[in-house]
């Protein structure tokens, strides 16, 4: 375990590695250049970070200035981030998929002075809006051939290639080194480290101010809760570093512990990269795990016969074995033998596709369906779940390595308080800390609130919004509904998502949606019913499964009509809707649905960057087909 200085800052973590954990020449970053994986040492990383620092100091950048990054996960992200942060500047990472309007707003709201750009598409986006960004001085492309792009006639920003920065400042002078060190040591833990813009499911984007202390304490206590992470790990990074989850759970953890970080080439090549890199730890989102689950079930049961029977038998054995281990019982020798056979015949083959070395995966960003977590547990693959928001640095709770409670997001981390507050009366139902943990404790649900070292400094230049989010007693109101179950935090839904039907019954859509997502035919589902007599839903089918079953061409998904009207497809989906409805209370069951050809997306403004549905946007956009569903159901009665 790393010995954390009480006043540690983000730049000090990496310096600690070369002083106390690894020799400077040890590998830190791994990425694919052309066709080969290239390893980059801690020493080289720090040299390139110093080059970035020296360049910007020469240009007059000072402590507190905001510096932008709009780039995919890469070593360049690390060089730039470390370089700006060690001179006290502030990281403002922008989601590459945001619209020009949103990017322009963030640049102007934060007052970004310089921005690192990762590819030609993003570069063209910045060239279009740069003229509207008064405080932006430098545009820094981190790719080749940027000169071939035509600049707007009135373009006045200085363009400097990132390669040129690294080359011209490759050898920093003694004076530059002295200045950089003095600035690094002069950073106060309460200084802002990063602005991360979050709009949630509604409203104007807000810049969340996270301090060095926010990040470092979050990493420190997470490592206490998951003490099996050590300096020998190799993380595979693919979730965007513009999101706080990947930034903390992979990047900062690896900086603290001296782990290797390998960067996946793309989501499409993730499976290939896993086999090549053979990671020991990965951060992921539930949707990835759901896809792995769906493909494994489909492959294991395809065609029926002996292969299918062996697969289903293995899963049953895995469940029995897991249940015994989780109950702290020693499995009988007969069960241990069966589990060994299941491992050899089935489980090992699935694990090989992840590289075969995974200790565990960390799932965050959304709730992991209970059945998916149990599936991986049956295979012997640990999935640790965490919970938090951008405003909480982000982790508030995380699963303990040796104690899994599926359907929950783990134990409260050390050093903070998590409360459950009654939604209507605002009375506190319960407060839990890491130290008050009891494995059988349960309480009623309410809004999840938190106070302690993980809570943000506030929203940048938005004192009213900050006061609304953090009350006078220091509690940050998450807007999530939850409770404590078996000592662990369990998230039910978002407060803003709550549906109140025409009869006054409260329905939280996420648990309902998760029941229907058990169907291998369904990719996404969006439940509707606020102020209505019953629930309906927009269902997005699993494209691969749908195409195979009905032998559909790709042109089927390019139709101008966003909704499927073929009765045989509607009946096919309806079979699973009806079957799974039996698991729900009558008022939670879907009475009618429409099938949307293609998934909701960020590009269409339907999802937030963290892939949460924008309920008001979707309901407004598809108001007509939604109203049709209610009219159809009435006519059917």
TrEMBL record:
Q: Which UniProt keywords apply?
A: ATP-binding, Nucleotide-binding
InterPro entries recorded: AMP-binding_CS, AMP-dep_synth/lig_dom, ANL_N_sf
Instruction: Please give the start and end residues of each transmembrane region.
Output: none
Listed GO cellular component terms? membrane
Keyword Repeat present in the record's keywords: the answer is no
Family matches, as Pfam families: AMP-binding, AMP-binding_C_3
AMP-dependent synthetase/ligase domain: which residues? 24-460
What would be an example GO MF term here?
Answer: ATP binding
Keyword Transport among UniProt keywords: no
Q: Which domain of life is it from?
A: Bacteria
Name this polypeptide is given = Long-chain acyl-CoA synthetase
Q: Which organism is it from?
A: Pedobacter duraquae
């Amino acid at each position: 375990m790393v010995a954390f200085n009480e006043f540690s800052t983000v730049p000090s973590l990496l310096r600690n590695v070369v002083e106390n954990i690894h020799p400077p020449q040890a590998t830190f970053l791994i990425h694919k250049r052309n066709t080969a994986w290239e390893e980059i040492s801690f020493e080289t990383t720090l040299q390139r970070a110093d080059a970035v620092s020296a360049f910007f100091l020469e240009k007059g950048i000072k402590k507190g200035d905001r510096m932008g990054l709009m780039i995919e996960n890469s070593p360049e992200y690390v060089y730039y981030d470390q370089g700006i942060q060690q001179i006290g500047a502030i990281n403002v990472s922008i989601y590459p998929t945001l619209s020009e309007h949103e990017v322009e707003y963030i640049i102007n709201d934060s007052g970004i002075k310089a921005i690192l750009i990762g590819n030609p598409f993003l570069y063209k986006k910045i060239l279009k809006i740069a003229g509207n960004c008064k405080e932006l001085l430098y545009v820094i492309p981190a790719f080749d051939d940027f000169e071939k792009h035509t600049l707007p006639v009135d373009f006045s920003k200085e363009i400097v290639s990132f390669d040129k920065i690294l080359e011209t400042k490759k050898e920093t002078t003694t004076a530059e080194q002295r200045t950089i060190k003095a600035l690094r040591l002069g950073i106060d833990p309460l200084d802002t480290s990063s602005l991360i813009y979050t709009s949630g499911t509604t409203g104007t984007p807000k810049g969340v101010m996270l301090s060095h202390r926010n990040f470092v304490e979050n990493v420190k206590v997470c490592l206490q809760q998951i003490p099996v992470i050590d300096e020998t790990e190799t993380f595979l990074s693919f979730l965007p570093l513009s999101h706080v989850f990947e930034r903390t759970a992979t990047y900062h953890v690896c900086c603290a512990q001296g782990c290797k970080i390998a960067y996946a080439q793309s989501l499409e090549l993730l499976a290939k990269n896993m086999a090549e890199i053979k990671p020991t730890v990965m951060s992921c989102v539930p949707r990835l795990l759901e896809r792995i689950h769906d493909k494994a079930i489909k492959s294991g049961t395809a065609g029926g016969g002996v292969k299918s029977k062996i697969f289903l038998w293995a899963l049953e054995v895995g469940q029995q074995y897991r249940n015994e281990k989780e109950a702290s019982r020693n499995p009988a020798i007969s069960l241990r033998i069966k589990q060994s056979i299941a491992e050899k015949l089935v489980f090992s083959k699935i694990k090989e596709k992840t590289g075969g070395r995974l200790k565990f995966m960390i799932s965050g960003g959304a709730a992991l369906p209970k059945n998916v977590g149990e599936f991986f547990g049956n295979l012997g693959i640990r999935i640790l779940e965490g919970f938090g928001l951008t405003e909480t640095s982000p982790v508030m709770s995380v699963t303990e390595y040796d104690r899994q409670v599926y359907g929950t997001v783990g134990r409260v981390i050390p050093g903070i308080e998590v409360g459950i507050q009654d939604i209507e009366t605002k009375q506190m139902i319960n407060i839990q800390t890491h130290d008050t943990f009891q494995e059988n404790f349960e309480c009623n649900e309410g809004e999840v609130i938190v106070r302690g070292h993980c809570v943000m400094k506030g929203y940048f230049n938005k004192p009213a919004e900050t006061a609304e989010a953090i009350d006078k007693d220091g509690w940050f109101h998450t807007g999530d509904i939850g409770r404590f179950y078996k000592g662990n935090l369990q998230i039910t839904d978002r407060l803003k998502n709550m549906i109140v039907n025409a009869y006054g019954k409260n329905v939280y859509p996420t648990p309902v949606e998760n029941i229907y997502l058990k169907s291998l035919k369904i990719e996404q589902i969006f439940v509707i019913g606020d102020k209505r007599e019953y629930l309906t839903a927009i269902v997005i089918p699993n494209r691969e499964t749908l195409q195979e079953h009905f032998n559909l061409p790709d042109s089927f998904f390019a139709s101008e009509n966003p909704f499927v009207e073929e009765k045989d497809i509607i009946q096919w989906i309806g079979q699973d809707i009806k079957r799974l409805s039996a698991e729900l209370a009558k008022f939670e069951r879907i009475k009618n649905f429409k099938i949307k050809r293609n998934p909701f997306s960020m590009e269409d403004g339907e999802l937030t960057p963290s892939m949460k549905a924008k309920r008001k946007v979707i309901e407004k956009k598809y108001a007509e087909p939604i109203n049709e569903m209610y009219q159809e159901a009435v006519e059917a009665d």
